[in-house]
Amino acid sequence: MKNSSLSNKHPLDELIRTDRIPHIWCPGCGVGTVFSSFLIALRESGIDLKNTVVVSGIGCSGRAAGYVKLDSFHTTHGRAIPFATGIKLANPDLNVIVFSGDGDLFAIGGNHFIHAARRNVDLTVICVNNFTYGMTGGQAAATTPSMAKTTTTPKGNSESPFNLPHLAYASGATYVARWTMLHARDLTEAIKEAILKRGFSFIEALAPCPTGYGRRNKEQPLQTLKIYQEKAIIKNGANPAEADIDFNKGIILGKFIDIKKPTWLDTYNSIYRPQDNSDIIDAA
Amino acid sequence: MSKNVNTGEYFITGDVACAEGALAAGCGFFGGYPITPATEVAEHIAARLPDLGGVYIQLEDEIAAIASVLGASWAGVKSMTATSGPGFSLMMENIGLGICTETPCVIVNIQRAGPSTGLPTLGAQGDMMQARWGSHGHYEIIALSPSSPQEIFYQTIEAFNLSEKYRLPVLIMSDEAIGHISERVIIPKARDIKLISRIKPKGKKNYFKPYQPEGHLGIPPMADIGEGYNLHITGLTHDHKGYPDMTPEGQEEMVNRLIKKIKDNRDDIIRTEDYRMDDAEIVIVSYGVSARSSLAAVDIARAQGIKAGLFRLITVWPFSELRIKELAKKIRGFVTVELNLGQIHLEVERAAGGNAPAFLVGHHGGTVISPETIVEALKNNF
Ligand code: SF4
Question: CB-based contacts of A251: which residues, under 8 Å, 6+ apart?
Answer without folding.
Answer: A180, A206, A228, A231, A232, A233, A245
